[in-house]
Structure formats: structure tokens, C-alpha cells
Amino acid sequence: MKPIRVLVAEDQGMVLGALSALLELQGGFEVVAQVMDGEAAQQALRAHSIDLVLTDIEMPGLTGLELAAWIRQQPEPRPRIVILTTFSRQGYLSRARELGVDGYLLKEAPSDELARSLKRVMRGQSVFDPSLEGLADADTGPLNDRERRMLRLAGDGLTTAEIAARVFRSEGTVRNTLSDVIKRLGARNRTEATRLARERGWL
User: FRET partner for 108 with CA separation of 20 to 30 A, picked from 141, 163, 173, 174?
Assistant: First the structure.
């Protein structure tokens, strides 16, 4: 039986290496690519045949949720997508479900349980950590994808000009969008707006 070809996306190098090693020790998996951000994951997906993407949420460049959205737009055959995170936030879980990911698991799970869950996903099942059941119907929040990306880049310390270059919008559009987001969240500035949105899982 062919091993499941996996791409692991995780921005903490030690966790990335340990997770990849644990999967291969479980048997039935071949970790084809290890990447530390969403844009590197896109490049790896273009270069390799991948059956399953195991991704964290909060990463530089593209988040795991933005990566999932991009994968869903690609032609078939597409890899299955499982989120593996420390965050059990309502906003994250709701957006993951909205994007149609195949699983949402927490990092605290034992490695053998993770392996079983991933194999279930490859058999066509959806696998969500049972501790998240009460969060399933949560609101995805007041921000759209463009606003989330701009606010996250602002929170990363990018200037208005740098954000405009990243999202292919004018500086005026970026300023107006961020000003509107700050007011909508009831925040005083970009930093506070980013903190509030992260706490609620809206980024």
C-alpha cells in the first residue's frame, strides 16, 4: 500500500521537525515537504504530488486558513486539508468549516491519535477534535478576507505602502480599509484592532 504523501506547514522549526518525524514513525506516511509559511507551501504544492496538507493556522505570509482557501480554488485532484493548531477559537473553527477543510485537530493530541485521524481523513471522513463540538456554530466574525489580510499585515508591522504592495491596492484604499476596521472593532489603533481580532480568532 502506498504511503500517504504529506506536506507539513508549521512556522516553529522544532515543532515542524518533530511532527514530521513522528508521522513517519507511525507508518503509512511519507513527509514529502516541510515548510514554515503558507507561501512556501504553495510552492511545494506546485512542485510535488501531495495527498494531504497538515497545516498550522498562524504562519507568516499566508495563514493556514488562507492556504486552505487557495487549495480549494485549485483544479482536481486536490490534497485533503487538515488544520493542526493550539487554537480552539470560535472564529478559526467556523472559518475552517466554511472553507470545507477535512479536519481540525489540536496539537495536544497524542501522535498515534493524530495518525489515526489523518488516515480517517484519507478514507473520506471529516475529523474534528471532539472538544470543539460546542464551537461549531460560531460566527466567523465581522471581517472579510481582504480586511483580515490587511489587518494581519499591519499587525506584523508593515507600513501602509508595504501593505498596499502586498494586497495590490492603493495606499489610500489600505488606509481607508484599516480605519473602517478599527472603528468596527471598537479599537483605538491598528495594534489594538489586531489584538482584538486575534483573541477572537478572526485573523
Answer: 141
